Amino acid sequence: MKKYHLIICEHAFAIYAVLPLLQQVRKDEEIFKVFTPLHLEEVCTDFLGLKQGEWSNLDLYRSSIGNRLSKWFEIIFVPLNFSKTYEFRKKLTMTASERFVAQNTAWFKLKPKDVNTNYVEIFTFLSKAGVIKKLPSEFTNIIAFTKLRTPYLLSPYSEKLMLIMESWDHPMKEPYFACPAKHVAWNEPLKNEAIEFQNLSSVITKHTEKFRYIKERENISDKTLISTLTEIYSSDLEQLQGRKYSVYPMCTSSNYHAFEGELAFLKYLSATMAGSGRRLYVRPYPLAPREDRSKLELIDNVIVGIGSQSINGTDVLDEQAQTHKYLLMVNAQETINVGTTFAIDAALCHCPVLQLKLDDDQKCAAYGDFIKYSQGLHIVKYLWTNLAVSFPQHPEKIKMILESGVAVKYSSGLRTWMKPN
Predict the structure, then answer these.
(1) pTM exceeds 0.85
(2) Would you state the pLDDT for residue 307?
(3) Nearest residue to 360 via CA among 390, 339, 383
């Protein structure tokens, strides 16, 4: 009997990550159906090459009741100290009334390890009672990716569910509200976080498809890759030809807090780079407003790169965008990182990485809330190694630091950390 795979793709990364799986399923002549929201239908069907009957509209199964009950389950039953990240995020995202209820339902709070199992039990019951719509049930297994936007749809199928980690902070960011039979993590440290925070038993490690675009291009010449680019991407790279440059990926945008603080930091960083023989290429935050560019362009000694060309986060499906990103890194002197996972991309491209630490001292006061923003738990836990450089304690030594080889060693260490067991 042929296997029947039901695949949930609620965001662009899931569509990107599922392509190799579909290639294998097609090779084995197995059956599958991809469920994705209507607004992603076109990019999904084009990118995956889906035929009639191989795609279904996930929106038809979503439930306003399911969404509301999920929200109130979280407010009433999930302890605010589920994790430090969760507690911090909820302080920012909960309304005053939601926070009041969350803080005054102490008797109902579950132990963190019991959150997922209780959610699944409740919503399995609601599904069987017909309160929430059901997915087709004839499939052999179901594959989904963190972060789950409709976890209630998966509750009745836990024994068939394989959940794949999309982002490195998802295990500790918030409950999955799912009990997958199998969970795939990037590496051993993140596997341990999934076990600790999500109380999962069956977790395996595997190379994440998130960085597949690097492997696909590393044996192709730059000249060939550049020839595939449209003018908007090729002209952006042309301004870097013959120049030594460092890439700085923005951590924030004006859509979020800490943007003004990062601008102040960037001005200081660009000034210290003036004598290094490098230009600073600033990569705007993905999906940042176009107005951010005008503010960045006021900073001396920087080249402001092109921002995201998509409006719905589908750059990951754009071969041109991926090629541009790859060429930007492999030809840079180094990537200078503060608070983003771009450092991982750079390291996997064998681009040296200078990881900066903004400490809580008076010299950093001008950067406001960007200091705390740059001290994300995973940034500190995994990127603040002994090779990370405190800044701006010794800004006059930036040229010496860049030439010391510490960025090369750091990049090598990060590649080693990324390897699955």
Answers:
(1) yes
(2) 82
(3) 390
